[in-house]
Specification:
The protein is an alpha+beta fold. It has helices spanning 82-90, 95-112, 116-121, 123-138, 157-227, 231-245, and strands at 2-4, 8-11, 15-21, 24-29, 32-35, 41-47, 51-61, 67-78, 143-154, 250-253, 256-257, 277-279. The strands form four sheets. A four-stranded antiparallel beta sheet has the order 1-6-3-4, with helices on one face. The protein has a three-stranded antiparallel beta sheet with strand order 7-8-9. A hairpin with a 2-residue loop joins strand 3 and strand 4. Helix 2 (95-112) packs across helix 4. The model is unreliable at 259-285 (pLDDT under 50).
């Protein structure tokens, strides 16, 4: 705050003020060039930008009776209209000190409703609650709480050591769980691979068996197609061969050798013009 008693003065853009005539409120002053009667008038100027206030570290007790150290920051500014500017001058003597002390009191109340675990994870919620509560309380002073931030939540050393051990144990448990999961998945993959290999071998055996069956089928088809008609001729040749080996008599006809006529001795023919010729092989000495 600054006080002006000179007859000519300038109010900056980020300032608002009031003029008092003989110690009594006279009018509201906005940014710009102004004139006043010296000695009779006094102008009081207020900076209406956001003011940053530091809440020093203080001990608070949580719901589960754990003492922790907490500090934070508050951003507060005076209202921009005439009514709020008047309140900042006439409703409170030192509004910056009043806001800080009020914030400390409500900070202890907020953490007193929460356990230690909740306090460590509810930083944003605590900040939001404090902003709402403080903004309502300082409205009678012509102020507005723009933002509250909890900067530090510091548990005792023994609590921090216990939390560290708990965190380490939790990380080890997760690591073991991940390792077990990895081994299980690897076993499942090996199992699937073994099944696929077995199925591949069975499929190969089936294909081999099918190939052999197909080959046998082709052989049978070929035998039925090409061998059945020639079986009689083959048998005749076998009989003729056996007869020749045993010096048997055979008959040569115009259609070739006929094993069916090998019945023993050659019959006597009564026809002289017969074209068939009896052949008797010479006996070996």
């Amino acid at each position: 705050m600054r006080i002006i008693i000179s007859p000519v003065y300038i109010v900056r853009q980020y300032e608002r003020g009031i003029v008092e005539f003989l110690g009594k409120y006279s009018r509201f002053v906005e940014p710009g060039f102004h004139l006043q009667w010296p000695l009779l008038n006094v102008t009081r100027i207020r900076d209406v930008r956001e003011h940053t206030m530091d809440i020093e570290p203080q001990a608070v007790i949580t719901k589960d009776n754990v003492e922790i150290q907490v500090d934070g920051l508050i951003w507060v500014r005076p209202g921009l209209d005439a009514e709020n500017i008047k309140k900042t001058f006439y409703s409170i003597d030192d509004w910056t000190l009043a806001v800080i002390e009020l914030a400390k009191t409500n900070l202890r109340q907020e953490f007193g409703q929460l356990t230690l675990d909740d306090s460590l994870t509810a930083r944003e919620r605590i900040s939001s609650n404090l902003q709402t509560v403080l903004d309502q309380m300082v409205a009678d002073w012509g102020l507005k709480v723009c933002k509250v931030e909890i900067r530090l939540i510091d548990p005792p050393e023994d609590i921090k050591k216990a939390m560290h051990k708990q965190k380490t144990a939790e990380q080890e448990r997760r690591a073991m769980k991940l390792l077990a999961t990895g081994k299980f998945e690897a076993a499942e993959q090996e199992k699937l691979a073994a099944i696929q290999i077995a199925e591949g071998r069975r499929e190969a055996e089936i294909r081999v068996a099918e190939g052999k069956a197909r080959a046998i089928q082709l052989v049978n088809e070929a035998a039925e197609r090409y061998f059945v008609g020639n079986a009689k001729d083959l048998k005749r040749l076998e009989v003729t061969e056996a007869s020749l080996k045993n010096n048997a008599k055979i008959i040569v006809t115009e259609r070739g050798i006929s094993p069916q006529l090998i019945l023993g001795d050659l019959p006597v023919s009564t026809h002289t013009d017969r074209e068939d010729t009896a052949v008797s092989p010479a006996k070996e000495d």
